[in-house]
Amino acid sequence: MILPEGMQADKPRRVCKLQRSLYGLKQASKYWYARLSSFLISHGYKQCASDYYLFLKHGSKTIIALLVYVDDIVLSSNDLAEIQHITHLLDNGFKIKDLGDLRFFWALR
Fold first, then answer.
1. Which residues of 65-103 are buried (b: 16+ CB within 10 A; e: fewer)?
2. Which CATH architecture best describes the domain 22-94?
3. Rounded to the nearest 5 degrees, what angle is found at the Cα of 79, between the Cα atoms of 76 and 85?
């Protein structure tokens, strides 16, 4: 582990106790999801009533589904340009990493 900028170790090999969780907040995932859902809704996506983590956007001939799982996003659409568009918007707003095509998807019944 590398110490944060401005912090100095007075003794080598000392253990640090973290006071906050990932991203510096105890409820970081909750706030990240709130920010993401607001972002998607502002770009025309509607949150699915039956699945809180599924966002849909309908066009005249297109549909795009965006599914959020922890900190991963699965995109599916019948229009590649729509996927590229939302990927670009998400990258500008959140600095995402495109992991490529989905190869495995576990669904529980």
1. ebbbeeeebebebeeeebbeebeeebeeeeeeeeeeeee
2. 2-Layer Sandwich (3.30)
3. 85
74: part of which helix (H) or strand (E)?
A: strand 72-77
Helical axes 80-94 vs 28-42, angle rounded to 10°: 130
Residue type, 65: A
Q: Please report, for the chain, the start and end positions of each structural domain, with discontinuous segments joined by +.
A: 22-94
Q: What is the pLDDT of residues 22-70, one digit of tens each?
A: 555 556 677 888 899 999 999 999 999 999 899 999 989 999 999 998 7
